[in-house]
């Protein structure tokens, strides 16, 4: 039994600043489409396509697209970075429990959706990198799977990457963002043992606490208690005076939250990652005698007293994400860029496509069904008008799963194809013709 549906997505924008790298020649249709998007004439749109800034425009810098051509993407990744005069870099690991919002935050910081997002756990299956380039600064985002225990990995037969990748990210990072879902009343009062262990075993990596999903809280005053619990009342080595560093809804307007700073002094908030709390860290670790004893003590802890700063935001709607982004840019260290400014992610085009389709499967299929779907891309080519044509076969193990995936009248699989196609258009900035075929694995 099989079914094939197709999702047609029309270009909505174009903004590839490094088009000259691969001999890009924008068609008249592309120019007209870009002109509609930017509200400019064709000449100005052409400038946006080639990365020529419009001095009269006050729009934010447009993140580059990802090439859907595998060879072009690989060429760009090995291409010598276009170093500015005084390059700066900050490598940021983003860790937290499953479904804390790590990929959503990464996508917001990048300006394009390149990492899969779903309400189900373990949507991100392995470490992936995103690259934010602004001015002379490059942020390298290390999006990681949710931290899990070895026991849970074995119990649910999960990939080893889910266990190892967050630790690999910590070893590469200059700074770690620890995300906590404050809307989950069952888990929000503790960072969790796996997160605490990760922080403890990498003491030289500065950490920042990020309280996510604040838009889902009716009572913003809860954030005061959570901040105190998760930091043990200490931020940047100082006793936390929560009344002076947080705006409640009554102070800032309903639904408005601000970053939570440990102090108001610019000198105190602009330190170099890894250079803070040396005395505090020594005192803290000296109290514990052996690594086994340390880990036993960590199981009794809920918070971490060595956070450099605390932010409160909503990654899903972008609330206060720009403030966090500016903060990260100020912490970047003088260092040569690692990627060309046109690189948005280190993922291959096919990996991005697989992840986005799998995200939709996780959203629309119940329980364990989406985790057992095997994806097989049988066609990936450029069409006669420059569109991307993709045919992917979804293999399932049971007849009931075939019917479930197709849906009544093919509505389910059609919706998956259309939504995945729209996301792919946003990543590749081109027309996308996505076909999905469902088959029973024999």
UniProtKB/TrEMBL annotation:
Chain segments carrying region G3: 143-146
Superkingdom per UniProt: Eukaryota
Region named G4: 212-215
Compositionally biased spans, kind Polar residues: 255-275
Primary site of residence: mitochondrion
Membrane-related topology note: Peripheral membrane protein
Chain spans, region G5: 313-315
Key words of the record: GTP-binding, Membrane, Mitochondrion, Mitochondrion inner membrane, Nucleotide-binding, Ribosome biogenesis, RNA-binding, rRNA-binding, Transit peptide
Region feature G1, mapped onto this chain: 96-103
Positions of region (G2): 122-126
KW Membrane (keyword) present: yes
Region of interest: Disordered: 250-278
GO molecular function terms attached to this record: GTP binding; ribosomal small subunit binding; rRNA binding
InterPro entries on file: G_ERA_dom (IPR030388), GTP-bd (IPR006073), GTPase_Era-like (IPR005662), KH_dom-like_a/b (IPR015946), KH_dom_type_2 (IPR004044), KH_sf_prok-type (IPR009019), P-loop_NTPase (IPR027417), Small_GTP-bd (IPR005225)
Function, as annotated: Probable GTPase that plays a role in the mitochondrial ribosomal small subunit assembly. Specifically binds the 12S mitochondrial rRNA (12S mt-rRNA) to a 33 nucleotide section delineating the 3' terminal stem-loop region. May act as a chaperone that protects the 12S mt-rRNA on the 28S mitoribosomal subunit during ribosomal small subunit assembly.
Family from the record: Belongs to the TRAFAC class TrmE-Era-EngA-EngB-Septin-like GTPase superfamily. Era GTPase family.
Protein name: GTPase Era, mitochondrial
Species in which this protein is naturally found: Microcaecilia unicolor
Higher taxonomy: Eukaryota, Metazoa, Chordata, Craniata, Vertebrata
